[in-house]
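Quiz preparation item.
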């Protein structure tokens, strides 16, 4: 009887340790790419931002908008255009200093001049 209790306790303890390790590993995986909000062009905050330029999500945050709202406004102003699920830079956007970065670790994104007005 005592032997069974010890074995049961040992199995239970091993199970708790295994679950704790799985949770720790999951937390590590989630905390590393935490800045990657969405696969939309411009959603990455972890790319290097040149002086005076902001990624779409960071620019949206400074304006008090969500990323999707900022993209909708940029479309309305003619800085970018939507083709299906993708957003493309227009010549007007280029003239006002918007940049499209096609190759990055997090996918394509836009860089916006901090001084650009979307109001």
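Solution:
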């Amino acid at each position: 009887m005592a032997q069974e209790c010890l074995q049961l306790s040992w199995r239970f303890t091993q199970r708790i340790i295994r679950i704790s390790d799985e949770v720790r590993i999951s937390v590590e995986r989630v905390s590393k790419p935490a800045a990657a909000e969405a696969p939309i062009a411009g959603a990455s905050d972890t790319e290097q931002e040149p002086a005076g330029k902001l990624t779409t999500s960071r620019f949206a945050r400074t304006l008090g908008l969500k990323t999707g709202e900022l993209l909708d406004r940029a479309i309305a102003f003619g800085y970018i255009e939507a083709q299906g699920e993708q957003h493309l830079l227009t010549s007007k956007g280029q003239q006002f200093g918007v940049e499209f970065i096609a190759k990055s670790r997090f996918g394509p994104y836009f860089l916006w001049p901090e001084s650009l007005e979307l109001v």
